């Protein structure tokens, strides 16, 4: 019997060693960013068995068999639809400035989505203004309302939006709502889903979370986009979830969330609707390709011409597309780069790009919240401060709440704004969308807003930062090791 147990023990050791070896080879052959691979290998070696299980659950971008098959079947018809936008008169790449033209070439070649002119953009920076504007547009809707959000949290003015949607559905407007299952968990447990469905609203949980699917699909892959399309003539996108900040995470100790949304009219509405249609079909299998835009060229002095490039990312989209756009934007900067992000864990390439910009004389400002709702992200973010401060990057810690705005302004002439955080999850994992805007007036508005954030911030002093307690440095280095996975 003793010999049997010895054989069993040796067999278990061999099986464990073989499993570790196979997973190690799998990690290496995935050829991801070196830091990501090293972080996973460290977890696999340090945490017996649990590290291997964690890797199979969260280590690879697995959309699930059914969704992956749908995405493959969808690609050609959606590519054809986006290609037809090139024939619109409002596709005028010659109007792009020298900074935006390389971004447009990158996105057209990789995404097949062209930049379109003839849009009107309105920057909305107050939550109640955003929600009130949304309710008014919903009340005026005549044909359709399509919405998708990462978080819908009941309470306050978010309930007014829900009531407006129910009334719209009852008067015959076609309403479709797609919400991330994890982010909107509180909403799906409330009374609102039943009321909405009873009124005729199609309400779908995206990427449902279930213990039965732990090894069939990556559970932390989330729908992080925020898009609203009304009557195919008005769209909203930006950083704000469908929440009233006065009722959302009030016990987190970080203050109210600070967000922006962009209200869009013009041809870009159809492009955002196309992205939304993609997400709906991936989740439900139902196809409704939107109508092509009217593509009417502006012919009066009152019409503003905004060249807008819609850039979606996530499974099914070209790898690292938004990461490439960010790098290209920073490398092209000649005078200034101003970035706002709630979660700051840059890739190694982005870190070098920001340091390089500052070292060649470009003014680089990063605005982040003073307090973060994620302790791990907070400590991991601090681990990059020393390198950035030494290179001349200015870091500002915002005191007016949890700054959730995701924006980049380059040389005060063009900008990026949308749902993308400067962290690994947004850059490589989640479904995201951002707008690259080539319009000086809109960019000036966003730049002014960023300066208001800076006025309500304290700048990190390099000398004071170097004198922080040794315990803080140890925590920073510990979480830095896991930063590629956060």
Q: What is the spatial order of strands in the main beta sheet?
A: 9-16-15-14-10-11-12-17
Mean pLDDT: 84
Low-confidence stretches: none
| CATH architecture term of the largest domain | 2-Layer Sandwich
CATH topology of the largest domain: Endonuclease, Chain A
What is the number of domains?
Answer: 3
What percentage of amino acids are in beta strands?
Answer: 15-25%
Which CATH C-level class of the largest domain is it?
Alpha Beta
Count of helical regions: 18
How would you describe this protein?
There is one protein chain. By secondary structure, this protein is an alpha/beta fold. The protein has helices spanning 2-29, 34-46, 50-58, 65-83, 100-111, 127-140, 157-170, 185-188, 192-198, 268-284, 321-332, 348-359, 375-382, 385-391, 424-428, 440-455, 462-466, 470-480; strands at 120-124, 144-149, 174-180, 202-206, 227-230, 234-238, 257-258, 261-265, 307-313, 336-340, 363-369, 394-398, 402-403, 407-410, 414-418, 432-438, 457-459. The strands form three sheets. It has an eight-stranded mixed β-sheet, sandwiched between helices. The protein has a seven-stranded mixed β-sheet with strand order 1-8-6-5-2-3-4, sandwiched between helices. The protein has a two-stranded parallel sheet with strand order 7-13. The chain is globular, with a radius of gyration of 23 Å. 44% of the residues are buried.
């Amino acid at each position: 019997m003793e010999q049997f147990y010895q054989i069993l023990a040796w067999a278990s050791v061999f099986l464990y060693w073989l499993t570790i070896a196979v997973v190690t080879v799998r990690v290496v052959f995935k050829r991801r960013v070196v830091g990501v691979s090293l972080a996973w290998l460290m977890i696999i070696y340090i945490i017996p068995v649990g590290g291997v299980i964690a890797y199979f659950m969260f280590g690879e971008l697995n959309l699930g068999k059914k969704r992956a098959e749908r995405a493959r079947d969808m690609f050609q018809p959606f590519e054809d639809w986006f290609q037809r936008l090139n024939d619109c008169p409002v596709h005028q790449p010659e109007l792009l400035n020298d900074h935006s033209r390389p971004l447009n070439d990158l996105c057209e070649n990789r995404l097949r989505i062209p930049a379109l002119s003839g849009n009107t953009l309105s920057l909305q920076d107050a939550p109640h203004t955003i929600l009130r504007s949304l309710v008014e547009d919903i009340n005026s809707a005549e044909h359709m309302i399509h919405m998708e959000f990462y978080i819908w949290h009941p309470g306050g003015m978010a309930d007014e939006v829900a009531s407006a949607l129910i009334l719209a559905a009852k008067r015959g407007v076609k309403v479709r709502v797609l919400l991330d299952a994890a982010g909107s968990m509180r909403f799906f447990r409330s009374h609102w889903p039943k009321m909405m469905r009873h009124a005729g609203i199609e309400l779908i949980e995206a990427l449902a979370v279930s213990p039965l699917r732990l090894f069939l699909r990556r559970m932390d892959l989330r729908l992080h986009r925020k898009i609203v399309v009304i009557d195919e003539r008005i769209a909203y996108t930006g950083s704000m979830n469908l929440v009233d900040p006065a009722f959302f995470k009030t016990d987190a100790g970080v203050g109210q969330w600070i967000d922006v949304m962009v209200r869009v009219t013009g041809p870009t509405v159809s492009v955002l609707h196309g992205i939304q249609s993609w997400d709906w079909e991936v989740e439900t299998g139902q196809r409704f390709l939107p109508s092509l835009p009217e593509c009417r060229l502006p012919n009066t002095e009152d019409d503003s011409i905004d060249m807008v490039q819609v850039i979606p990312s996530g499974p099914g989209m070209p790898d690292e597309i938004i990461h490439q756009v960010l790098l290209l934007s920073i490398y092209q900067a000649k005078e200034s780069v101003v970035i706002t992000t709630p979660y700051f864990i840059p890739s190694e390439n982005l870190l070098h790009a920001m340091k390089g910009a500052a070292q060649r004389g470009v003014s680089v400002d990063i605005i982040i919240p003073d307090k973060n709702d994620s302790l791990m992200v907070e400590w991991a973010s601090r681990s990059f401060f020393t390198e950035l401060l030494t290179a001349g990057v200015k870091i500002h810690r915002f005191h007016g709440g949890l700054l959730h705005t995701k924006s980049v302004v380059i040389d005060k002439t063009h900008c990026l704004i949308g749902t993308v955080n400067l962290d690994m999850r947004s850059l490589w994992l989640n479904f995201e969308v951002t707008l690259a805007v080539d319009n000086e007036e809109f960019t000036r508005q966003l730049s002014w807003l960023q300066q208001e954030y800076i006025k309500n911030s304290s700048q990190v002093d390099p000398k004071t930062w170097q004198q922080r307690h040794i315990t803080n440095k140890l925590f920073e280095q510990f979480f830095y090791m896991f930063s590629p996975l956060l």
